[in-house]
Design a protein that fits this description.
The chain is an alpha/beta fold. The chain is built from ten helices and eleven strands. The longest helix has 20 residues. Bound molecules: 3-hydroxy-5-(hydroxymethyl)-2-methylisonicotinaldehyde (PXL).
Length: 287
């Protein structure tokens, strides 16, 4: 079984970061280690929150792992609590990433044109240094703009997204994915470009509701799919289908705006969709 480690916060309530990554990645048949980077009472979109920063724990934990030759097939980062913490995460990559494993960075810091409340304007430049070390990065459009110093637009065309993808690759990552892309009403999707020029896009139905934590759900599912051996495009598509299923299962719940989507009820569906895609990709390999 593949083993990954995810570096992000524990928001004790509110279905995001580690409370999403652990159950989803485990259900997908991948061992999920955690390195909690902060403990919050709840995520920062609630009216109030507490936050105990654990930046000073990253290095001692990394040293304990290194001294016991603990290794990971994947390293996955999400919400990071401060610019200083970003530097510690870069150091962690330098110790634990190698040509045989995968680093996936979800630069969870902004949405709808705005940085999350806990961050200042200097933060995106620190997150860009984490992205520079990644095999795959998964920003939404707002995050892609902040990482590359591009003006955020709500109306755009394929050339604008293509420009963002190229600028993201210039940060140093190997593959840039942009989530939450829409070129026509009713359709929302994801698109990627890698350094060899390979491209892929996948679109689903655009759910009008917007819920907290769906980006974390998306990134966790993408990582799980890749670790199980699915090609990146299939993993991105599987994750999109799963998030849509979760949103549809939650659509009538007002609480979901803060508490996140009820992904728990969709875990069996995720496992079914994963097995279906694995079988299809094995059939392709054999053909
Ligand atoms: O879902 C991203 C996320 C993770 N962790 C914390 C957050 C957020 C988004 O606001 O506040 C603490």
């Amino acid at each position: 079984m593949k083993r990954i480690v995810t570096l992000q916060d524990i928001s004790c309530v509110g279905r995001c970061s580690i409370t999403v990554a652990l159950p989803v990645i485990s259900a997908m048949g991948v061992e999920c280690g955690i390195l909690p980077t902060a403990v919050l009472s709840n995520h920062t979109m609630f009216k109030t929150f507490t936050c105990k920063d654990l930046t000073d724990q990253i290095d001692p934990i990394a040293k304990a792992w290194a001294s016991q030759d603990i290794t990971f097939d994947g390293i996955y980062t999400g919400y990071l609590a401060s610019g200083e913490q970003c530097q510690e995460v870069v150091n962690f990559f330098e110790q634990f990433s190698n040509s045989g494993n995968l680093t996936l960075v979800d630069p969870a810091m902004a949405d709808n044109g705005k940085l999350y409340p806990a961050f200042d304007d200097a933060f995106p430049a620190e997150m860009a240094k984490v992205c520079a070390k990644a095999d795959i990065i998964l920003p939404n459009i707002t995050e892609a703009c902040l990482l590359t110093g591009t003006e955020y637009r709500t109306e755009y065309d394929e050339a604008y997204i293509d420009g963002l993808l190229h600028k993201l690759l210039e940060l140093g990552c190997k593959t840039a994915v942009i989530t939450g892309v829409s070129y026509e009403p009713g359709k929302l999707g994801v698109t990627y470009l890698d350094r060899s020029g390979k491209r892929f896009s996948y679109f689903t139905r655009h759910c009008p509701q917007s819920y907290h934590g769906t980006g974390d759900l998306y990134a966790s599912t993408v990582l799980g799919g890749i670790m199980r051996g699915l090609p990146l495009g299939d993993s991105l598509a599987l994750a999109a289908d799963f998030v849509v299923a979760c949103i549809e299962a939650t659509a009538s719940s007002k609480a979901a705006r803060w508490y996140g989507v009820e992904f728990e009820s969709q875990i069996p569906e995720l496992c079914r969709m994963l097995e279906e895609r694995l079988a299809a990709s094995e059939r392709l390999d054999q053909a």
